[in-house]
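Re: the request from the purification team.
They wanted to know what the chain is likely to look like in 3D before they choose a buffer screen. I agreed to run a prediction and write the result into the notebook, where they can find it.
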Amino acid sequence: MKNTPTPIYAGVDGGGTKTRALVVAPDGHCVAHAIGESSNINTAGVASAADNMESVLAKAAEKNGLAPNYAAVFFGMAGVNDSTAARLVTNLVNQFSTVKMSGFEVANDTRALHAATFGVGSGIVLIVGTGSKCYGRTNDNREWEAGGVDYLVSDEGSAHDIAVRGIKAALRAADGRGPATALERIIFTALRLSEYGEISQRIHQDSLENPGQPMTKAEIAALAKYVTQACSEGDAVARQVVVDALDSVIETVVAVAHKLGFSPEGLQVGITGGVILNEPGASIFKERLQKALPGAKTLVPRIPPVAGAAIRALALGGVAVTPAVIERLRSSLPEGL
């Protein structure tokens, strides 16, 4: 085994589909990386999440001839939305047997995105993909988050939210309570329904992807593409669905900005997620954001969230995260991470 740089740090981006680990030297240079299975405790399960977190850190080090012995690790985890979940994941990390670390921190994955966008500076970030969440942090380390608690009660503006709103609009049109819309034909065709009342069976008992099982969150969220397609094609009802959904997620940005005392003028909002990075959502989002927070600007981070997690790990380990360190990290990122 090669000599391990002393010390080494790692950022972990734990998602519902994949877990990524990035190992960096104190100067920010990337020395190893690995990708594993999901480590979201709500979707993968506690035992599998723990195994996947530990194995991705071990694999990242060992496949590059390094000992899995870290000075600091930052875990940016989807599904860690409260102190109870954070304690649970912390306890799992404390039980690692093949990976050692002198210090670590567990937090929601928005923290990794924030560091990827602003380094150790201040600003607001917003995730709007299959799910959604908004988080802000100030230069004096005050922080606040809004939305994104759970897709059943608070996933504002997400693909899942747009899909559900689109289905409701289609049902309203079908039974005469709402205006006519192409969504009625498009969504019912996508779900292979012979009559719209069958939608309850499709959602709760007979998924197209997994017959005999309920539709998953991701399967429902995938229907958002039909809503945005109809919006792009000029369907007024579909456009209103998208506008209303994005207005609801912009409310989370407004709430975070207000709680942390950010002025709209010059406010930077880091964004990620297919809903607001792709059209028609991108244009609608920027237009509605300007209406709610005149002067606010959006920016897309130049590095992925796992690199943001590595930045947080360096800071956790007492390394001064300068612009030069961040640039060295960015320029040495492996392809496809």
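For the purification team: The chain has a mean pLDDT of 93.
Please add any questions underneath this entry.
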